[in-house]
Structure formats: C-alpha cells, structure tokens
Amino acid sequence: MTPINTLDDHAAIGTDVSILQDIHLKTKNLAVYRRGITQLKGELAQVAKRPMECRANGTVEEIIFSLSSYLTNVLPEHVGLLGDILNLLELFQQVTKVSSFRVSLATVSTNMCSRFHADNNELRMLCTYYGPGTLWLPENAVDRKAYLSGKGNQNIVPDKSLIQQVATGDVVVLKGALYPDSTPVLHRSPNIEESGEERLLLSIDPNQSLNLPI
C-alpha cells in the first residue's frame, strides 16, 4: 500500500484545516486534513481498554450533550476527546452549512464494508482515533465499469499498490453518490478481523441536504 498520493487530481490533502472546504470543488471527491493527535494519547489509551458505542442525533449542542453523558459513564477522563469531537462537528458544520447531524463513535473489530464503494449520501466525515484508517482509491486506480457492474475489489482496483489509506487521527471528508454533478470517491474499511486489531471510528453525516456554495 502506497502513502497518500498528493498528486491525485481528485484528492485535496493538506495540513491546514481549510483544505476540507476543497471538497466542494467539482474536481475533488475527497479531502484530508492531516494532523497529529498526540494530545489525546492518554485518553485514547484508556478508550482502547473497553468497547465503546455511542450514537447521537441533532444539533451540535445536542450531540455533544449526548456524547458527554455517555463518556462520563465509560471514560472518566474524556475532556480532550470530547473537545476534539466538538471541533470536528464545528468544522463539518462549516463545510456543510447545515445544523443537524448524525454521529457514531464506536469501537470496530470487524472488517465492516470490505468492498470498495461510494456512500449513498452527499458528504461524510470520518476520523479513526486509533487503529488503521480508511482505505480509498485515487481515480487513476479505479475501474468504474467493474464497480458499476457489481464486480469485486480485484476488478475494481487491478493494481493494489495504488490503494491509499488515511492516517490515524487525520480527518477525511468523502464525497458520496448523492453529491450533485460529481464522481463519488470509492473507499472501504481496512481488514482487521484477521489481525485482531480494533479501531475507534468517528463518523458524522448531515441530517439535511447540503447548502452548497454557489
């Protein structure tokens, strides 16, 4: 697996948070904000000792209230993690210009979606707090005909060396099949069942249609 390919014309990748706004460019179907999360190391070490699953729905304030109530019961020290999730919610609100979201914060121990696919939505934000990050395909690696005809990964991506992976802690916004006049990014979960690894995955979806920039 190769490192993130910054030369892929359909991917916007950078170390400034403003890179996430590039997801609205017609040519882009993925945006990655590369960052470190060493400040969360202590809390995440405690999180890794217990399975977590929390789903919340509503405004940013309602979601943070639900997450805070959940984390208070399972993780005594969670101020840093909760603050980071609040920051990501606010960033995604700036990207989407909507006021209601669906959030999942869950420990993952299965391979989940093993086939490269596009989400049936407009945009989704993901952050893997620990464990391997999401796999995605640059457009020069994709056989779209094979994908649309329902074939497997071996046909969708003939050259596996072109598969990319979002780093742990990085923030990715994925353009889905419902985003107007665009080519959605194909991605999948990493294989972890065989190795016994786990992931802590944050997923954020808009609850409303996007207010897209003109």
What keyword list fits this structure?
10 strands; Jelly Rolls; three-stranded antiparallel sheet; 214 residues; 23% helix; seven-stranded mixed sheet
Structure commentary:
This protein is α+β, with helices and mostly antiparallel strands and 214 residues long. 32% of the residues are buried. It has helices at 41-47, 60-74, 79-96, 144-148, 153-156; strands at 11-14, 30-33, 53-58, 101-108, 123-130, 135-136, 164-165, 171-175, 187-188, 199-206. The protein has a single domain, classed as Jelly Rolls, CATH 2.60.120. The longest helix has 18 residues, at 79-96.
Shape: globular
Main beta sheet: strand number and arrangement? 7 strands, mixed
Unreliable spans are 1-7
The CATH architecture name reads Sandwich
CATH topology title: Jelly Rolls
What is the total number of structural domains?
A: 1
Q: What is the number of strand segments?
A: 10
Percent of residues in helices: 10-25%
Cα(first) to Cα(last) distance is: 37 Å
Q: Give the helices and strands as they follow along the chain.
A: EEHEHHEEEHHEEEE
Rg estimate, integer Å: 17 Å
Q: What order do the strands of the largest sheet run in, or round the barrel if closed?
A: 1-2-8-5-10-4-3
Topology summary:
Elements: E1 11-14, E2 30-33, H1 41-47, E3 53-58, H2 60-74, H3 79-96, E4 101-108, E5 123-130, E6 135-136, H4 144-148, H5 153-156, E7 164-165, E8 171-175, E9 187-188, E10 199-206
Parallel strand pairs: 1-2
Antiparallel strand pairs: 2-8, 3-4, 4-10, 5-8, 5-10, 6-7, 6-9
Helix pairs in contact: 2-3
